[in-house]
């Protein structure tokens, strides 16, 4: 295996996926290719329904593919049984969703601690780690706040802290800035970019927000279930 290949966090080729059968069959992916090295932030862009979310769901082991090959962090998620796949995902993949998906009845610190507790981390250690992550995203002093007591931008920061708490080698973000104002979105992306550029992990961001293109190492365009072109951000994206 070449040195270039070993540096790839994601190596997916000719990935296909369809939903339904017969007249109801819908092709979501029609041979998509994606390679993401460690230390890079790659953005997936394209019209709604072009297959972006399906592709990252397959990469994260949330969905199975119909065809093609897929190596993520040196593993084919589809080759794992359900239990080991869930455990692998919990150890290695962090998710940031547009809807935040915070538990409304527990504090910010407890929300961040959830993935650690699921992995069996002792509660005291998990709470200490979650407090550290909240400070890292600029929310020191808000550990005991409930989600509804926080702004949208603060809730998104909690979601990022929760995703980063297990120190995932792959961070996947689905429209992380769409519900945020420009300044807050830029701050959120600075945190996300740091995971790739300072920590050396791989980051994949789905977005329609052209304001954040400048944070990407590469912008991968998708349409009709395929990758159509790849570009490097220019000064026009700044």
Describe it:
By secondary structure, this protein is an alpha/beta fold. It has a single domain (3-103, 151-237), classed as P-loop containing nucleotide triphosphate hydrolases (Rossmann fold, 3-Layer(aba) Sandwich). The chain is 32% helix and 26% strand. It contains seven helices and nine strands; from the N terminus they run αβββαβαβαααβαβββ. The chain has a six-stranded mixed β-sheet. Strands 2-1-4 form a three-stranded antiparallel β-sheet. Strand 1 (8-19) and strand 2 form a beta hairpin. Residues 1-5 have low confidence and may be disordered.
Separate helix tally: 7
The overall strand count is: 9
In CATH, the architecture is 3-Layer(aba) Sandwich
> Order of strands across the biggest sheet?
5-6-7-3-8-9
Question: How many domain modules?
Answer: 1
Radius of gyration: 18 Å
- Please state the average pLDDT score: 91
Distance between the termini: 37 Å
Low-confidence stretches: 1-5
Give the DSSP E fraction (strand runs of 2 or more residues).
25-35%
What do we call the CATH topology? Rossmann fold
Q: What gross morphology would you assign?
A: globular
| The CATH fourth-level homologous superfamily | P-loop containing nucleotide triphosphate hydrolases
Q: Which H/E pattern describes the elements?
A: HEEEHEHEHHHEHEEE
